[in-house]
Write a structure and sequence with these properties.
The protein has about 110 residues and is mainly alpha-helical. It has one domain. The chain is built from 6 helices and no strands. Helix 1 packs antiparallel against helix 2 and helix 5 crosses helix 6. The protein is globular, with a radius of gyration of 14 Å.
Length: about 110
């Protein structure tokens, strides 16, 4: 359950809120994501079964996430499949706030 950017979906508040049907966590996550992304993200947008899994995606991840849009355009499963990973300015913002995401991608590369 490693997302395209390397985040661990099992640790993602949107994923957890969806899987546990936790409305309080949806509200908290929507507020935080709206502030971080300067976007109108509402609690009803916080429904996700995993970035790369079939099923629901948050509105942000499905429609606004530049990393996901880039991966779809390039035809890669995760950023680990992209030669630009280490110098990519798009995914760098995520890795700056969550270095474990970059490590997850590096682990995917090692296991290829």
């Amino acid at each position: 359950m490693i997302a395209i950017c390397g985040l661990d979906c099992y640790k993602c508040d949107a994923y957890i809120a969806t899987q546990t049907d936790n409305q309080e966590l949806r509200i908290k996550t929507a507020k935080l994501w709206a502030e971080l992304n300067n976007a109108p993200i509402l609690p009803e947008h916080i429904n996700c079964d995993g970035c790369r899994a079939c099923g629901r995606k948050t509105f942000f991840c499905d429609q606004l996430c530049q990393v996901r849009q880039c991966a779809l355009k390039r035809g890669v499963t995760t950023c680990a499949d992209c030669a630009e990973l280490e110098k990519c300015s798009i995914v760098a913002a995520i890795h700056a706030h969550n270095p474990a995401a970059l490590e997850n991608l590096r682990n995917l590369i090692q296991n290829m």
